[in-house]
């Protein structure tokens, strides 16, 4: 048993080292409380709905979200718009479809099964419209950045005037959380930029938090199910481990050896 | 094998067993006499079997939904994560399962190093194990390419380029591996095919590994030969089965924690960016389990020699049964070896750490010293130690704490028992 | 004393086995369920069809859930033929009134109920459909009249969104 605990500690140490070595490279990000962290972490529905509003009104003019469908907006564990609301949202977008019987493409109002409409036809068009820089697809953006949600949250609030000695080209901006501090996206958020339907005060900090929450859900739509299942699975494993432990003790008691 | 002749009780069982002795095999496996003093470090064999089965089952499921095409691979992985029923669960088990597999295999290997399990008469078990380990690395590397993220693409580029170090034919081999002039769709499809094949090769080798194990029987913490079956052994079932089961459950708790709460911590964020042949990520690192070898590769300034050093670091293990000249197996009775053993463990951990760091300045220096020490351990320290070390007296039996006096006496006894067998 | 001990041991082992079996079951389920239609497939469950260009006596075939759906605008003769058949004569008795709410429009899954082939339009002994695979004859209402197919061709759930558009599913 002593040996066993030693192995167990090794595991803990191992996981600790991993996260430390990752954390070592990072700069200090702005901190906020994320409701989806922790053993029972869940998304804040209202924040997700507000975050979706910020995404559509601000981000979506340049950033696509090609892996999301309008049906996801009504899905359990997400923003949980009602089915009717999600349908209305989908219908407010023009979706390209076709070819029809004449071989022509046509547009129609969006349906729940449609993917989020993309701001540009393709990557080249996106680059051409943005001075050569491709605004990254946001579907898994949170998972594709080392700092995750804290990084995105900080970045949105990290715009400031460049320090003395730093010169910026046209179309390049200074952001203290960006890798290399130079970013091709200008500051997008300003207080009161969107008008939240639930009356929340749309400060830059609030919008950053909401839209980051929304992006986290977009990248991990099954996060709530994962946390719930994980808790059950681990409790189950602990119960079975205890039972097996006592069974083992009993079986080994037939011979005179410590197990 | 020393198994007694087994006859099934039922008439049908006897009829069947005469034609295909599956029942004899089952009986051999359940009755297999196992040293009763095995500690928990010995449970990792069972844990590894579990890991292999888990990877094969979840891998089969993923292959039902995955599309091995450069244009669709990344999309199909996202499809698995979002739309396929329990797809996120199965993929996270498979991705973290690879890490858990390597964690377990490293513990298994270092257990063997500590207790001298690679020594006669178990050299073949050990060498099969090294081949399994090599195939595991190949499978893991190719599996990492399949999501077709940035790390997949650039990892594949860097690793396949290792072959270009071979004089004269190197470039040709690399082009042949790629099926083109860069890592592209043909590379992806062939990697997928091989990634699917290798686990079954591993499974076959595992059968051989266990078969070879069942000829001499398990080594044990004391490291002496034991008579089997005897009062020093217990039947595999139920004693070892339940103990392995208990350890496996503890292992699964850790596994579950990774899968459900930090599923991406062992991966790299850049692999959630779709592969782009025009942009290399700022910081290319292999998965954690390959880092020590990566450090050895980078510590040598010459391209060809770096590759040679990295491969030698693995192949040198195959020669270990002959490099270690000591007659005593277990480090418990080798006070000096025990210290060198822990230095080696630290050395490999250091190599892993510097492998994750940029190859410059102090890190590079440390990597070079650690690489040199790694080879020194196997090529100089171990052979010399066998002749110079003053070992402790070893017991004659694992049940009776009677000390057998000098190691030579015990060796004589080992020889005697092998003659009797 | 020893009997009591046995009972306790049995209970412990039984409990361990039982709990273990529950876990095995719970683990197998995701591996099975992953083969069921996924969320994106389920989302495509309905499709809308513009039928304004379909003249009487014409059939269009549209894809719904990966299967062909026949949408036929029937002529008065066909309707009369379908409605005159006595139910007793049918292998699978269904009235045409039940199968085609609007008598002019017959909307049905174009899949032979024998082994899943697609029957040919306006063929066979009953002026309806004929399945080339094993010779099933369907009438102008898509009902099985002759041959190995056990039941009539299936009518999917559909509705007229407006006079020109049918929503299937």
Question: How would you characterize this protein structure?
Answer:
The complex is a heterotrimer of chains A (259), B (421) and C (169). By secondary structure, chain A is mainly alpha-helical. In chain A, 41% of the residues lie in helices and 5% in strands. Chain A has helices at residues 2-23, 45-57, 83-91, 123-129, 148-156, 204-219, 223-252, and strands at 94-97, 106-109, 173-174, 182-183. In chain A, strand 1 (94-97) and strand 2 form a beta hairpin. In chain A, helix 5 runs antiparallel to helix 6 (204-219). The longest helix of chain A has 30 residues, at 223-252. Chain A starts with a helix and ends in a 7-residue tail after the last helix. Chain B has 421 residues and is mostly helical. Chain B is built from 16 helices and two strands. Chain C has four helices and ten strands, in the order H-H-E-E-E-H-H-E-E-E-E-E-E-E. Chains in contact: A-B, A-C, B-C. At the A-B interface, helix 1 and helix 7 of A face helix 4, helix 5 and helix 10 of B.
State the helicity of chain A in percent bands.
Answer: 40-55%
**Distance N to C terminus of chain A:** 7 Å
CATH-scheme architecture of the largest domain in chain A: Orthogonal Bundle
The dominant shape of chain A is: globular
Q: Oligomer, anyone?
A: heterotrimer
**Contiguous runs where pLDDT drops below 50 for at least 5 residues of chain B:** 404-421
> Do you know the CATH topology of the largest domain in chain A?
Cytochrome Bc1 Complex, Chain D, domain 2
Largest interface: A-B, 47 and 46 residues
